[in-house]
Specification:
It comes from Pseudolysinimonas kribbensis. The chain has 75 residues and is mainly beta. Helices cover 8% and strands 36% of the residues.
Length: 75
């Protein structure tokens, strides 16, 4: 998953893969998402708080909480 900008956009290029763009500061995430699991670090200005690091086989994943009340363009 790409922790990029904007509203979520997901695709399934193969049967066993899901590719997505996710912005924790987007209106969608702020309203509907509480937690995120990813194997990529978020951008420095992200609206995510790291809760834990988890090893899944050879992959290190992070569990994040979406920080409520933080929205793009908000003062």
């Amino acid at each position: 998953m790409d922790l990029g900008l904007g509203e979520p956009d997901f695709a399934d290029p193969q049967r066993d893969q899901i590719l997505g763009n996710f912005d924790a500061c987007s209106a969608f995430a702020q309203k509907y998402v509480d937690y995120v699991v990813s194997d990529e670090a978020p951008p420095a200005r992200s609206c995510l708080k790291v809760l834990d690091d988890v090893d899944q086989g050879a992959t290190e994943m992070q569990i994040y909480r979406v920080v409520p009340g933080v929205r793009k363009g908000a003062p």
